[in-house]
Amino acid sequence: MAKKAKKPNTDDKNGREANGRFKEGNVAATNRPNPLDKKTNDLKAAVLAAVSHADIKCIIKKQVEKARGGNNESAKIVLDRCLGRPKEVYEVGGKDGKPIQVSIVDFAKINDDTK
Fold first, then answer.
1. What distance in Å separates the CA atoms of residue 51 and residue 96, rounded to the nearest whole number?
2. Which of helix, strand or coil describes residue 14?
3. H helices within the chain, ranges in order?
4. Cα-based distances in Å from 56 to 31, 45, 114
5. Is the Cβ–Cβ distance between 7 and 19 less than 8 Å?
6. What is the pLDDT of residue 96?
7. Which of 13, 23, 30, 70 has most Cβ atoms within 10 angstroms of its Cβ?
8. How distant, in Å, are the alpha carbons of 2, 56, 63, 77, 103 from that of 60?
9. What digits encode the pLDDT tens for the residues 54-73?
């Protein structure tokens, strides 16, 4: 049987509204921006200001040249940037790589047999 979700405590002591959301004035209800977001955005802006389109083109051309020359790391960088990274695939197996054996238990049948 699935667990039922708990209903939010809606008494006035916990600072929540009837629907479970924080009431206005509750510190947890404020939409304060993360201070690290501003720092990260400032750093990104500094990098973008320092790099031109010509710089990026030059870097990409150099990576493509290296990839054509057999550099696997450069090829990976170019392909990942152009095509996107491949999704990770997980293969799950049992002992010695054999398929995992799964048994399905019919609990309704077990209950009928024990009566």
1. 52
2. helix
3. 35-50, 53-68, 72-83, 107-113
4. 37, 15, 73
5. no
6. 80
7. 23
8. 53, 6, 5, 9, 53
9. 999 999 999 999 999 999 99
